[in-house]
Design goal:
Two copies of one chain form a homodimer. Chain A is of the alpha/beta class. Chain A is built from 13 helices and twelve strands. In chain A, helix 10 crosses helix 11. Chain B binds a DNA duplex through helix 2 and helix 4.
Chain lengths: 350, 350
DNA sequence: GGATGATCTGACATCGTTGTCAAGGCGTGT
DNA sequence: ACACGCCTTGACAACGATGTCAGATCATCC
């Protein structure tokens, strides 16, 4: 294994100078820098991460704290964070946090203490747990929250524009001629879900359509509530011609209910979801939905943590980026059966 | 941050003795051991992983090398590996390997060199890449392959019994009265998939049913081949009453084709898959399938790597465990429409 | 009682890097 | 010619653990 000394010897400089070159510090003559860089390349030298962290103030390690690391959501976050870490020559350590276990805080402490993490990314839903964010604050660990409902001070956040996405999707439905649209809400404590409803209402208001509040039902993001609330909406005397669910699982539930009742989708009923979960693609017909920039949010979180070493401004807008969403038009939405006067509408936006 | 010196001072012993206690070495008087352990608990001391790895021979780090870290399969492996790592006070580092990039080997080298990994877990499909396993061998890094098609010498493996699972599932179908059963194979290079076909044939042979080779079609694990091959099978003059696909995505394709043709599932057609992918639960009806012990395989891999420090026997059977599968009976399989004489059969095994 | 070996314990060097600090070289203004 | 500041460099001591080795203690056997 080659070390910094080998490089130093071969380049005819001191180890410290090699260290300077590696870390891009100033005050190294360009010739010397070039020569060291050449030797580094020749020997294919890689600094030992442990020595680095032991000696220096950085560990080059970022923790990703996740409730359920086996979920698709978690996988996307991991992927995005890991790739960005690699680009910035950091490494990602994924740590599961099971808040239902009594000793969860001890386990978190242990992980942070043993690894000297430079920062932590906290995924939903545990990013909304005050005890956890307090713990990180106590440990002096910079954190970035992914799509949190509440924003504690002195932590970074990454978000997507839930309101805008829901507005756009609703406008898509309205453009297809739908006027009676049902909305399946998420749980009340979930801020993002509230923003989605807000977007829905905005789009309806802009189009001058009165919202019938009895068409807005509250669910809990689980598939089975989609089944139940779908039943509710579709058994009405005047059922909606389109249903917008605040996540894909519930949309799937609505879809299954429609199939059971023999309602053809999208011919008699348009359905759209939110999340672009894997199951939205596996369903038939495939679900029109909103892609959350999960990987991008995680990558942005890494950026914030890495650069936070430099700047120490907690409320800097750079520490709270809003990432672009994308509407995914698939096969579960189509033109409304022509009850109201409707023109044909082109649906290939985004 | 408290260090080994703090503990040593408070316990009135040398740092080295504390080190001995932490690492469970022999030759420490029971009283001393107890006293040190008390102080460790009091101060809530955790050894610094970096110092440990820099000084000692272990890094307490295990790498999980994965092609597509965003897949559900990867997520399950990660979860299992991570939990077991935590129990054994190791940590898991996930490293993506993109074989399509020209410099993939340099990136792997870099990761291994910088982190001094104690071992690597290599997930499918890259565990079947000879260049990769050779690279690890060259680096002297112990590896465990997850469900590989070929087993290079001097590496551990973890497997599940694909043959037995497919046999059991086929027997389940036969027990439901099915006699004309279609089988959708995976790609030819995929050994596990071949074992699944073998299990299918064994069950059929045991039941004394002749296998019609034209009912066995080769796919490539993608959903769209499920659509196409389902079409193939269902448009026959004498279509099968049950179709067994070698993975869930293809089974889903078959399911969608059946829906399109208006064939009720499971009343007129039973379908089952393999993998217990998330989408198998999101489908309607939910798919009967085989649960692969993904998390358990990953956990077993960690065990092998951790204990391999102790024993150095490469071909030890303990280094090649076979993990138990589980049949998941859901709603896509049911009794065959009674063309052949059939008795009612109880389906609640496993 | 003294040699022997097993059981304990600590001093010290070491792992590979970075932080601190001091010092030398060089340009500039007076 | 001198003081001053900026650039550039390296010596040295950390960082926090473990490996090595030598020394101390104790029981056992001749």
């Amino acid at each position: 294994m080659i070390t910094i000394k080998d490089v130093a010897a071969r380049a005819g400089v001191s180890p410290k100078t090699v260290s300077r070159v590696i870390n891009g510090e100033a005050y190294v003559r360009p010739e010397v820098r070039a020569s060291v860089e050449r030797v580094v390349a020749e020997l294919n030298y890689r600094p030992n991460a442990f020595a680095r962290s032991l000696s220096g103030s950085r560990s080059y390690l970022i923790g990703l704290f996740i409730d359920d690391p086996a979920s698709g959501y978690a996988a996307d976050l991991q992927h995005g964070a890991m790739m960005r870490c690699r680009d910035r020559s950091y490494h990602l350590v994924v740590e599961p946090v099971d808040l239902s276990q009594p000793d969860w805080d001890a386990r978190v402490r242990e992980g942070v203490a043993a690894l000297r993490l430079d920062g932590a990314i906290v995924a939903p839903p545990i990013c909304d747990e005050p005890a956890l964010t307090r713990l990180f604050e106590e440990l002096g660990l910079p954190i970035v929250l992914v799509a949190p409902s509440v924003v504690p001070p002195s932590s970074g956040t990454v978000h997507m524009d839930d309101l805008g996405a829901a507005r756009d999707m609703t406008e898509h439905l309205i453009g297809l001629g739908h006027r009676t649209i049902g909305f399946v809400q998420g749980p009340s404590h979930h801020r993002a879900s509230a923003r989605r409803e807000e977007g829905f209402r905005q789009a309806m208001a802009r189009a001058g359509i009165d919202v019938d509040d009895s068409l807005i039902l509250r669910g809990d993001f689980a598939l089975r509530t989609g089944l139940e609330l779908g039943e509710c909406l579709l058994s009405r005397a005047n059922p909606p011609t389109a249903i917008f669910a605040a996540n894909d699982d519930m949309a799937l539930g609505v879809l299954i209910t429609a199939m059971k009742r023999g309602i053809p989708v999208p011919d008699a009923l348009s359905i759209c979801g939110f999340d672009d979960a894997p199951s939205s693609r596996a369903a038939w017909p495939q679900l029109t939905t909103v892609r959350q920039p999960k990987a991008e949010m995680a990558a942005a979180a890494v950026d914030i943590l890495v650069s936070a070493r430099l700047r120490t401004s907690p409320a800097d807008p750079d520490a709270h980026p809003l990432l672009p969403y994308q509407l995914i038009f698939r096969d579960s939405t189509g033109a409304a059966a022509c009850t109201p006067p409707c023109r044909h509408h082109d649906a290939d936006a985004a």
